[in-house]
Amino acid sequence: MGFIQVDYDNAIAQAKRLEAAADQCGEAYRAIRLQSGRSERFWQGNSGNVIRTKMAESVKELQTVQSDLRETAAVIRKVAEELRRKDKKLSGVHG
């Protein structure tokens, strides 16, 4: 029988890093939306519409990545905490 060793603290730290990256995605898409609104003063006509379309696509992609990062972080955290709990239970350690 093989055993899996899990560094619970490292797994939770990785989840925190993913959450921080998700926060950065949120900051980036808010900045793009702000700049998109401001671009109407400087970019007009077809070229302005094209750049705003691309900005909207970038916002959507960043929102998707942010959601995926948060979901992955939550799963990592949940699995690490559940494995830690089970490991403690099996080893007879309470707390």
Tell me the layout of helices and strands.
Elements (H helix, E strand, L loop, with lengths): L7 H32 L5 H47 L4
Helix pairs in contact: 1-2
Would you give an account of this structure?
With about 100 residues, the protein is an all-alpha fold. It has helices at about 10-40, 45-90. Helix 1 runs antiparallel to helix 2. The protein is rod-shaped and about 70 Å long.
Output the radius of gyration.
21 Å
Q: Provide the low-confidence segments as ranges.
A: none
Task: Briefly note the structural class of the backbone.
Answer: mainly alpha
Order of helices and strands: HH
User: How far is it from the N-terminal to the C-terminal residue, by CA?
Assistant: 28 Å
- How many separate helices? 2
* Largest sheet entry: none
Strand portion, in percent?
under 5%
The count of DSSP E runs of length 2 or more, i.e. the number of strands, is: 0
How confident overall, as mean pLDDT?
92
Helical amount: over 70%
Shape field: rod-shaped
Which key features would you list for this structure?
83% helix; 2 helices; 95 residues; 0% strand
Summarize this structure briefly.
The protein has 95 residues and is mainly alpha-helical. The chain is built from two helices and no strands. 9% of the residues are buried.
